[in-house]
Each structure stands twice: as structure tokens, then as C-alpha cells.
Design a protein that fits this description.
alpha/beta; globular; 7-stranded mixed beta sheet; 321 residues; 27% helix; Metallo-beta-lactamase, Chain A
Length: 321
């Protein structure tokens, strides 16, 4: 019969064997080259920057210098292993954004889209679907993920119903707070937010990958009108792209800005100022109006944002999932 020392040695060997097996079975962490990622393809309010018809100083520099122009708010989601690509929003700038996505991840074919996720039916968020149709790409069966009213809107109103009838797009139903998978590595959850609902619901998205989770809320009326606490939502993600349409009240001369409800960047910063620095660093303001001084990285507004520990989204930036 083995003695106490022999039994202890056998137990140590067995424990080491089990640990080695568990380590071998554990999934390897994603390498930077293989990790799915989000890429920012646009940062501005629906009408882009510079805005049509604007001859004011806020847009003059961008008219004169094309390198300063920015597209409507849009994210690309890419899985470099499967070579799958998705868009969040189909903006009026879809042509340029699709080309920018091609530069990031070469598609297998045109348009190289495994789906488009829509937040709502305001012009900067869905009208780029026209480029999927037979007057342009003439794609076949591009999945469009949309909430119930958004699906009905596209199915029952021209010219969008033609995209459905000609099977350029295939409507995929989603529901609020019910996660759905884009593939085996990426999960998305839509959630309702309060914003003008003339035609459809308005949602944000939570995009979860193997290592990180990203929040996308380009439009909301005011944080106080939401049934969820912004601070709690931020705590559950790694990066948060949030509504930064206007920097502060009074930005639109001779306009009552309460009629255009958005949380001012200044308000959001004040609200989140008590958070630890690591939490504030998650915030990246997006969906900036052409009047927003934070569009200029050298402006006093941009410096105040950075000094307070926040960031403005930058076109072309990437975040691994």
C-alpha cells in the first residue's frame, strides 16, 4: 500500500494533469490580426460636414479643404478571419463609406456586405440603401436588420419597397433587448432610446466580441428621458460612441434648441464628471452637427473635451472587439 508521501505525490500529478488539460482546452486570446473590430466610417450628423447650403464660417474651411470633410455617423464591423463585413447605418455617404471599408478589409465580392443594421428612419441613417438597388450596385439579398416599425416602413413605402420586391435586400427582424448573432464571434443587442419617432422606433446597439463590447447611440433626446442610467450602461462596455450632436446650447443662432432635443456634449461631460477617469475615457462623441466646434480637433471645445477625460470619435479609428 502506498504511503502518505506517495498519495500526496499522486494527487499533485493528477492536479497538474487536470490543469494542463484545462489550459489546453481554453480558447486562445484573439491576436490583433485576427480579432474582429469596429471601424468608424463617419462621425457627423445626418447631413454631413460641410452641410448643403451652409456658407457660414463653420463650413467654409471644409468647403475649401476636402481633407476636412466628414461623413454621416456610421460604423463598420469586420471579422478578418471570416472576411465578413457589416455596416451600422446606411447613410447618404454610403458610396464613400463602402470604399473606405474596402480599404480596411478587401471584400470577396461587391458589395461585400453581410448585413446592414439600422437604428431608425431619419435621413442620415437609412437613405443610403438606395445605392444597394438596381440603379446602382444591384445587389442581391443583402440582409438588413431592423425593428418592426422600421421593417414595415421599408416594406410599405417607395422607393424602399422596391428594394424588398426586387430582393436587393432581405429584411431580418430584430427586437429590443433580444441579442442576435452576426456570426459565432459577434453578438449585437438593440435597445430603444427616446428620440423623434415620426416613422419608426429609434434604437442604439451594443456590439459584443470575444474580448470587448462597444456601445453605439448616435441619437437620443436627453439622457434624463431614458429609462436606463447612462452611467450603468457605460459600466458594461469598453467603448461608448454617444450622441454629441451639439456642443452647447446657443449653437444654432435664432433657433430654439429645445425643439431639437439632443444631450449637449457640455451636459454629458457635467453629468459624467464624477466617474473615474477610466470610465470617462470610454466616451467618444459622435454624430456631430456641422456647427459643432468639436469637429475641429484644434478648437477650444475639443481641448475642453480632452482635458475632461473624454474623446471625440475620429473617422477611420478602429477598436478591436
Amino acid at each position: 500500500m502506498p504511503g502518505p508521501n506517495s498519495r500526496r505525490w499522486l494527487l499533485r500529478v493528477a492536479a497538474a494533469t487536470v490543469m494542463a488539460t484545462l489550459v489546453a482546452l481554453a480558447p486562445a486570446p484573439e491576436s490583433p490580426a485576427s480579432a474582429p473590430f469596429v471601424v468608424v466610417l463617419g462621425i457627423t450628423q445626418d447631413a454631413g460636414y460641410p452641410q448643403a447650403g451652409c456658407t457660414a464660417a463653420c463650413c467654409a474651411g471644409a468647403w475649401a479643404d476636402p481633407t476636412r470633410r466628414r461623413y454621416a455617423a456610421c460604423l463598420g464591423i469586420v471579422d478578418p478571419v471570416s472576411n465578413e463585413r457589416w455596416l451600422i447605418e446606411a447613410t447618404p455617404d454610403l458610396r464613400a463609406q463602402l470604399r473606405a471599408l474596402d480599404d480596411v478589409q478587401t471584400p470577396a465580392a461587391t458589395p461585400g456586405l453581410d448585413g446592414i443594421l439600422l437604428t431608425h428612419a431619419h435621413i442620415g441613417h437609412y437613405t443610403g440603401l438606395v445605392f444597394i438597388g438596381h440603379e446602382s450596385i444591384g445587389a442581391t439579398g443583402v440582409p438588413v436588420y431592423a425593428m418592426p416599425r422600421m421593417r414595415a416602413f421599408l416594406s410599405e413605402n417607395g422607393p424602399w419597397d422596391q428594394l424588398v420586391e426586387y430582393e436587393n435586400i432581405t429584411l431580418r427582424p430584430i427586437e429590443a433587448d433580444r441579442p442576435f448573432r452576426l456570426n459565432d464571434r459577434i453578438e449585437v443587442t438593440a435597445f430603444r432610446v427616446p428620440h423623434r419617432e415620426e416613422y419608426t422606433e429609434v434604437v442604439g446597439f451594443r456590439i459584443a466580441g470575444p474580448e470587448r463590447t462597444i456601445l453605439f447611440i448616435p441619437d437620443i433626446d436627453k439622457w434624463e428621458r431614458w429609462s436606463r442610467r447612462l452611467e450603468d450602461v457605460i459600466a458594461g462596455v469598453d467603448v461608448a460612441y454617444v450622441d454629441g450632436t451639439f456642443y452647447a446650447d446657443g449653437e444654432l443662432p435664432n433657433r430654439d434648441m429645445s425643439k431639437i432635443p439632443h444631450p449637449f456634449i457640455a451636459e454629458t461631460m457635467t453629468r459624467l464628471a464624477p466617474l473615474p477617469a477610466a470610465e470617462r475615457a470610454k466616451i467618444r462623441f459622435i454624430h456631430l452637427n456641422h456647427t459643432n466646434p468639436a469637429l475641429d480637433a484644434a478648437s477650444a471645445a475639443s481641448r475642453r473635451i480632452e482635458t475632461a477625460g473624454f474623446r471625440v470619435a475620429r473617422q477611420g479609428e478602429r477598436v478591436d472587439l
